[in-house]
Fold:
Amino acid sequence: MAEARFLVDTHREFIERDGIPIVEGFGIDLLGVQTAPWPRLGARGAYALTSGRGDFLDMYVLEIPPGGSIEPQKHLFEEVVYVLDGRGNTTIEASDGSTHSFEWGEKSLFALPLNCRYQHFNSSGQKSARLAGVTNLPLVLNAFHNEDFVFRNDFAFPERLGLEKFFKGDGEFIPMRPGRHMWETNFVPDLGTFQLQRWDARGGGSSNIMFVLADGTMHAHVSEMPVGTYKKAHRHGPDFHVFAVTGHGYSIYWYEGDQDFQRFDWQHGAVFAPADRMFHQHFNTSPEPARYLAVAFGGLRYPFAEDKKKTFLGMDVSIKDGGRQIEYEDQDPRIHRMYVDELAKHGISARMDAFLAGAPR
Structure:
């Protein structure tokens, strides 16, 4: 009689069979993650699983040796890739046999059109390239629990390719309203220099852009905090993976009713994911504007879940009005004092006076 199977996590079983390290934690330094040979991809890798990733997403670190490449891949799950270090190129082969290539470098962002064959190449003969990928493999694999269906499926999604310019670092701006302006593309060459749009409602002179990548359900956005500023606290559901892009700083996080804050310090290479309904707030302590990238499942075009709809509608609306944000006048007075003290360690003055009218300090 066969052994009974219950409480099966098909995704966990799959990644354990992959034979590479599995690193877990609230926040992770992706540049410091130790990788190991990854036979399935023909390179080196590790899974990096944040504790706030939710049920739908996972993340990996991929290391491609100098002059190397990965084995060609094709799969029925979505993936957003952020380049941590190095330079290279990716070739994508569509179902009609056409190919599309682009060159990436540190701080590039791209998405892989669904179920297209692709291959990454390291263009340096001396330095490894390191990429981080956020995928919805847990959702897909746990739903179908059939690896052939996920990895050897010939169904084509030609609409996911988009325009040829989407592979060339160009795209289309879709104006909405502050905090919801979108840029549709497949590839962003440099998140550190990409033009953002003002979003005053999020506080501190904030700016951002929402991305629609490969017409997918995966979400990505970039936000920036000017020097000497911080954003308003807010909360939402799990799975928003927050990557530091430029500058350095810290984030505090807590659940409603907690007496103390927890803290995560970040710079390029760091990632963390706030857990479900966990308040969090971001602070720039660097002498330059600080940017971060957030990757999640369910975006502005295809929110997928009701909670994501509520997040995108209420992310800059006060919790007193049914939204998900804490206004400056309602924040704990310790927060601003903590920030001023932290800036002093870096020889920087706070530039929050214009934003804190009526707020406790």
Q: What stands out?
A: The chain has two domains: 10-162, 165-355. The chain has a mean pLDDT of 97.
